[in-house]
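Entry 12.
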Amino acid sequence: MTTTTMALLQDSARRLFPDVGFDQVFAQLLLERAQRNLIKYRTTIRNFESKYGVDFPAFRQQVLSNQPAFEVEQDYFDWELAVTAISDMEDEIKRLRRIVQSP
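Predicted 3D structure (tokens):
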């Protein structure tokens, strides 16, 4: 990152987040992104639960015991990604909250 780019980012951070240090601004923005990702993954899971009428463990069992169609198999991978990502996002949110809440 160039010095000019960094200066522009710091200037924007000062205007958008008055009286907040640049590291706190950056942490806050990352926290907001992680929270949006968490919402996205939870929504994905709810959509799959609605589509298939089961939770992920039951769906996983169905997929592993059959020869699923391509779409079902793709849904399995997307659903599994969402399940895994939720845990990752929850951990990330905890870490970022500690930074944001520190003086």
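Annotation: The chain has one domain: 22-101. The chain has a mean pLDDT of 94.
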